[in-house]
Each structure stands twice: as C-alpha cells, then as structure tokens.
Amino acid sequence: MSEKSYLEALNLAITEEMRRDEGVMIFGEDVGGVKGGVFGVTKGLAEEFGDQRVFNSPLGESEIAGLAVGLGVMGHHAIAEFQFADYILPAVNQIMSEATKMRYKSAGDWISPIVMRTPYGGGVRGGFYHSQSTEKIFAGQPGLRIVTPSTVYDAKGMLKSAIRSEDPVLFYEHKKLYRSIKDDIPDVDYTVPLDKANVIEHGDDVTVIAYGMMLQFVLNAAEELKDDFSIEVVDLRSLYPIDKDTVLEAIRKTGKVLLVTEDAKEGSVMNNVSAIIAEEALFDLDAPIKILAGPDSPSMPYAKSLEDAFLVNQADVTKSIRELAEF
Amino acid sequence: MKLKDSQLTKDELIQAYRMIKEARMLDERLWQLNRIGKSTFNISGQGAEVGQVAMALAFEHDKDYFLPYYRDMAAVMVWGMSAKDILMGSLGKVDDPSSHGRQMPNHYGDRAHNIVPFSSTVTTQYPVATGVALAMQIDDSKAITLTATGEGSTSEGDFHEALNFAGVQKLPMVFVIENNGYAISTPNSEEFGVKDLSVRATGYGIFGKQVNGRDFTETYLAFKEAADNARNDKGATLIEMLVDRLTAHSSDDDQRVYRTPEDIAEMKENDCVMLMERQLLSEKILNEDELEGIKKELEIKINQATEEAEEMPNPASDQLMTHIYEEE
To answer: Of A63, A185, B261, B284, most Cβ neighbours within 10 A?
Structure first.
C-alpha cells in the first residue's frame, strides 16, 4: 500500500497500462512533453513511453475524438484527453456518431475500444467554462459508457478497467478531487468494474446516492450524523448506463432516498436515477424522492459569492439527510 | 489523356472498364429496386465511376484501408466488395457486410476488405481516417489510408481538423474530395469561394492536386503519385477529383427542380462511362462486339446477384439489442 492522491492514482493507472500493453497511447492538448497536462495527470509519461505514444494534439476536440476512434478501429486502446469537460462540445458528433455507434452499426465487425478522459466539476473559481458537469449531454446514449471515480482507489482501478474495456468510455475526473483527496491504495495491479455502483457505507435510515465532490460531502455528513442515523451511501460510479440493481436494492433497504449532484438539476443524471426509482420502486418508498442539485442557471459564475450560491455545499447535504431521516 | 499512358496493361484496363461498367449497371439496378418498392433509398455515384475506379486502383487492397462516403460504390467494389454485398445492403439483409442491415443503403463498410464504415453525418470519417493512418505509421505497417467525401463536406470543421493533423504528423494517407458540383441542391458557388479546392492543401503543409475524374489516366496517375508519397513517408495528399452527378442527390430528390435542362443534358453528353468506352474503341483496346459482350455478361451477373441477395434472410428482430456493448 502507498498513499496516493486521486491525480497520482490516475497517473499510475495509465503508467501501468502503458507498460502492460504497447498498444495503449495517450494524447490531447498539452498532454505530452515535459508539461504532462494542465493538471499534471500525464506528467512523466512522455519521458517513459516516448513522443509517439504520448503526444500533444492540435487544439481541436473533434479531431482528438476522431483520432481515438481511428486508432481504436486499428486495435489500439487510445486514451484521448479533453482538457476540460466544458471543451468537449466540438467533439459531440465524433463521440455520438462514430465512437458510440461503431460496434452497433457494424454488428460487432468494428469496435471503438477507447477512453476519453476529461476533468469536470466546479468549486475552483473556474467560471462558466472550467466548472461544468457535461455528462448529462451524453447520458442516454446506448453504446457509450460514462463513468466517474470518486475515491482514490476507484481512480486507479476504474481507469485501468476503462483502458482495457472494448467499449468507448467517457471518463469524467472531478478536478477538485485531483489533489484534495489522498488514500492508501494497493501497489499491485487491480481493477474496478465500470458498470457497478458501490455501496460505501451501509445503513438503515436513509439512502444517499452521489458522485464526485458531492460524495465527499455525503461521507462527511454520514460521519457527522452517525450517532443519530445510519446512512446507506452509494457511489454511483457509472453515470450511464445506471446500475439499476444496486440502486434499487439500496433504496428498498431504507425506503428513503436523497440524490445529490452538483450539476443543474434539469436533465441531470440524478433525474435519470430518480425516474428509475419512481418507475420501479415507488411503493417501497416512505418519503418522496429528494434531489439536491445545482440551480437551473446556465453555468457556474466566477464571483465567489455566486459560485458559492450555485454549489451544493456541506451544510446543504447534512441538512437534507437529517430532514429526510426525520420525515 | 490516353488510356495507354496509364502504364496499365491492356488486360488491366479491360478489367478496370469492367468494374466501371458493373458499378454503373448495378446502380441502375438499385434505382429499379427503389422504384418498385423493394428498397427505400438509393444514393448514387453515377458520373463518378471512372474517377473512383482509377483512384482505387492506385492502392493495395489487401493492406491499405479505405474510409469511403456514400457515393463510392465503384471504389469499394475495386477494394473487394461484390455486387451481391451491395445489393444485400440495399435490401437490409443480415449478411450485408457493411452493417448487417443496420445502416441505410450505400453506407459501405467491410471488415474482410479493410473498408471502415462511416456515418451519414458527412466528414466525420476524415478525423477517423487520421487515426487509422496514425496507427499504420506507428505500427510501421507500410500500409496507407484513403478517405473520401463530397465537396459539401469541405465546409465542415472536421475537414479542417483532419487535414491539419495530417500535416502535423505527415500521415501516410490520401484525402479525396469528389466534387460533383452540388451538395444536394447547393452549388459550388454557394459552398466555397475558391475555384480549386486542392489549393487548401498548401495551408496544411500537405500535397494538393486537382484532377479531372472523367479522365481515367489523369486520375490514376495522380492517385498513384499520392499513394507513393504516403507509402514512402513523404506525407499526405489532398486531391480534388472533379466528377459529375448524373442522378438526383438521392432517390428522395429530383434535381430537375434546381438544375437547368441544358446543364443536365450537357452532363449526360459527357457521361464518363460513355467517354471511356469511346477511348477503349479509339485506342483499339476493345471493339464494339467486345463491349456488348461485357455488357451482356454483367447483366447476367447482376441479375443473378439480385436474385441471390433477395433470397437472403433479413436480420432476426431479436438482433436489435445485440452488439451494443462488449458481450461477456
């Protein structure tokens, strides 16, 4: 075991997979050379694996995605980085029309076994275009996997699984977690499945489902409230497709569910989770489904006062759990 | 240019003509199938067959990859697809190698022949092709990539992004723009401000050339040079191939609405297949009887392929939910 940050765990996953499989390549804006990415996730990779397997792409996101698809077609497990999740929009056509449909449109004759990594999430004073959660744009496109690790252990294990997967994977990394969480993780090779939600804490009073920065708030709240209530905490992990079995089992256990996302509520992944629960488990509930989410403002503003007003915070989470438990 | 200046043998030229004629006659069959309601769509390469066959013959089909667009029937047949393969696509049959009945007709692909399937979105195959070419460069496979699109696609951002990257990495590939004058009903004059799209190559640091796609030899030699450059690590080429669109945009369009009768008549008088037949006769490569013989032979072949394709099974409805994710 060694203590690693979330960012170091991601770097380690890529390093180990590139050592294991010569076909793995990584590229994106500022990913190569000595810089190794604007956040440093790919630092040291060009030095170890050379400029052919680790390189800077020109500043064009559609090309970044299309390039990955073409490499995937040829049997390379390509890892493409979009510098911020906000910048992924020019690549939507490549992701939806090519990456996601390659397997289906050829009935399995061709596949697109690629990973598209991108940092998302707010609370870093990044303003409109360095703060957003864009996963909702893609959530609902069969053929694509959308995942996000919310713990250091998962950061390494899920990225390794994503690289080995034969499916196109959109891999969201919460940028505020990069350096803010550390944990002891195994030095050995291990993987974490991409399609399973994870019950992190077991409890009987309320089930809380979250991912990203919000999961940290939920874990803190569960600790703070532990003398009064026992909380079932579920890390969603797979944002599409949703792991229905784990979600439904966890909510049936307590009969009360709080869903937390920092994304604006309308059309969010948690709205999808809510729809599944409402459709399949309404009569197992003892209280209405509660969703704690960002406001439906067009994006997250820069000013500290406005950013704070946008973001769900620790106090909101703790209060909502308590209210639901006492319902 | 004379056919003999292509440096191909007489037999190779006859074989090339046979493929051109087969593509023309097969497309005519697809229109018939559409008009009698057996297929719901057709989109043609009529008027581009000579250019497409000349283009495709410049490549090594056992190792080079092709990312075509929907008018490329003649080119994919050179690459290895059969009349029956294409008919199965139009009829939505399970053994259709392009998509097993999943995509619309004329969306060609074939794993067995290195043809990567594309989307109707247009131009998205250009960036994907750069990935295929980069893999070839990294894997040092000595193979090269050809990708095609229409001239309307040159207005898409993917066109720029792909050419830019090909220039940066000196990719072993050839890009072709098959310019037939119209993007559905939008003429060249409303699509771009240049007379020669191949000049754009200069802006990306790659080779560029405009060719008359009705001229077999000129087209073949241009693609041969581009393929040689790609194979010898000299980098990518953008070729603008001038062709005609003898039919409407698709079976759901009528070009008489937006093109003048004179324009259409002039185009038909310069039909590339007819021009090539005249050349074959004047250069004494084939005589009238031999041309007629090939036509008869192809009629039988296409009739037989049609019958065989029609008898093939449709995909079972339970195939709908297969091949979505990796199956365990």
So the answer is: A63
